[in-house]
Amino acid sequence: MAFSAKTEYGLVALIELAAIHASGGVLQVAEIAARQNIPDRYLEQMLTSLRRGSILRSIRGPRGGYQLLRPPTEIPISEVVACLEGEPSRRETIGRQSPEFSVLSSLAARLESLRHDLLASTSLQDLLDQREERLKADSMYFI
User: Fold this and answer.
1) Mean of the per-residue pLDDT values for the chain?
2) Domain with 71 in it
3) Residue among 44, 43, 71 at smallest CA distance from 55
4) Nearest CA to 13 among 1, 35, 54, 58?
5) What's the CATH code of the domain at 89?
6) Is the pLDDT of residue 44 over 90?
7) Is 13 exposed, middle or buried (CB count within 10 Å of its CB: 0-12, 13-18, 19+)?
8) Are 17 and 68 in contact (CB under 8 A)?
9) Distance separating alpha carbons of residues 42 and 56, to the nearest angstrom
């Protein structure tokens, strides 16, 4: 149940934006794309989806770019995933009425519920904090 590439790239971009949120900073698509080695056009599509999903705002002009619409503590990862991936699709169950398929269907539903609960209880700030811890640990290692 890994993230799609689209969602991974979107989350990475949001972590970049979360890091500058407190200062009111703005990042342009090209800047994020260069830092994270993400194709510009692909990233632009994701950021547009996140803007439409009321997670980001875009600012026009030469000093424009994107910034978070809300503080990172108020953005659950479940909201980002739903915005980028859509709601989970229901599988076709016609012809799959046996007890074995029923057991598997029940397991899949539980797994999806646990995944949703974990993503709903994790904020963008949590991911930013984890990134900062890793950066600090990496810098201490090289001293």
Assistant:
1) 91
2) 5-141
3) 71
4) 35
5) 1.10.10.10
6) yes
7) buried
8) yes
9) 16
